[in-house]
Structure formats: C-alpha cells, structure tokens
Specification:
Elements: E1 2-8, H1 12-19, H2 25-28, E2 32-39, E3 48-55, E4 58-70, E5 74-80, E6 86-96, E7 99-110, H3 111-115, H4 119-142
Antiparallel strand pairs: 1-7, 2-3, 3-4, 4-5, 5-6, 6-7
Helix pairs in contact: 1-4
C-alpha cells in the first residue's frame, strides 16, 4: 500500500473547492489528459468521471467512481482501468493550523494491478503521488482560495 502526504498552504475549504470540481480532475490527477462527467453529481457517492490517459502512442480510457465522500474530511475513489483492473484511492484532508495536510492512500483492488502488486509497484505509486500532490497543491494555491497573502514552501515526504 502506498501512502504519501503533502502540506498545502491553504485551508481545507480551498482544497475541497478543487476536489469537488469535476472539471479540475485532470488538472491534478497525474496521467489524465482529460476528464468528463459519466453520471451523477460529483463528488456524491456513486457519481463518476470518465478519463483518458495517453502514454506515448497508447490511449487508455477509464472511469473513476466516488465510493465515499465525507466533505470536508475524506474522499475515496475507485479508479477503473479496464484490463489493468481497479484501484482504491483514499484522500484524507486534515486541517493543519491555517493550512491543510492531504494524505493519499492508494492500492490496487482487482485485475493485473492487484495480481502484480508488490513493493516495486508501491514505489511507483509513491512517485506518482508526489507529482499528483504537487499538482494539487499548485492548483489549490494558485486558485486564490483561502489566504492568498500566505507564503512558504510546501513540504513533501
């Protein structure tokens, strides 16, 4: 299981304004070149987005379904990637002083990803999480939500 966290220099409501905006999904999720509504009202439980991933000449279409949403604390998603299988992505949003600590916990559930899951795969997920959380922080911090006058470096682990 891969777990990573990031301090975002904005309050939790600023983070949630990005997480609940279905049109911003491909702005912070690494690998997605675009996303579009599939059904429901994002991020209500059961709602879904379709996404496209482009890796060189290959294109993969998938779907992400909201499995749990406890705004403003938790968002759990199930990413469905065809033959590659499904993965659970849990996003924990915690107030941290005036800022927000975001923790991502991801692991494969079914398919090839679940079968081949090992420490090497987890290492790949940690790298992906770093990029994804950096992107989320950039989107949130540049959105103007929260305290725009605050500055400082984001910390990464």
């Amino acid at each position: 299981m891969a777990v990573h966290h990031q301090l975002i220099r904005r309050p939790p409501d600023a983070v949630w304004s990005v997480l609940r905006d279905r049109d911003r999904y491909s702005d912070w999720v690494v690998g997605t070149s675009d996303s579009r509504p599939a059904h429901g009202h994002w991020p209500e439980v059961g709602s879904a987005l379709q996404y496209t991933v482009r890796i060189g000449p290959w294109t993969l279409n998938g779907r992400t379904v909201v499995r749990r949403c406890e705004q403003p604390r938790a968002l759990e998603l199930e990413a469905e990637s065809g033959k590659l299988g499904t993965a659970r992505i849990a996003i924990d949003v915690r107030p941290w002083g005036e800022d927000t600590l975001v923790i991502v916990d991801e692991h494969p559930l079914t398919g090839t990803g679940g079968t081949l899951h090992n420490t090497v795969f987890d290492a790949f997920l940690v790298v992906r999480h770093r990029r994804m959380l950096d992107r989320l922080a950039d989107v949130v911090e540049s959105s103007g939500a929260g305290d725009a006058g605050r500055s400082g470096d984001r910390s990464r682990t």
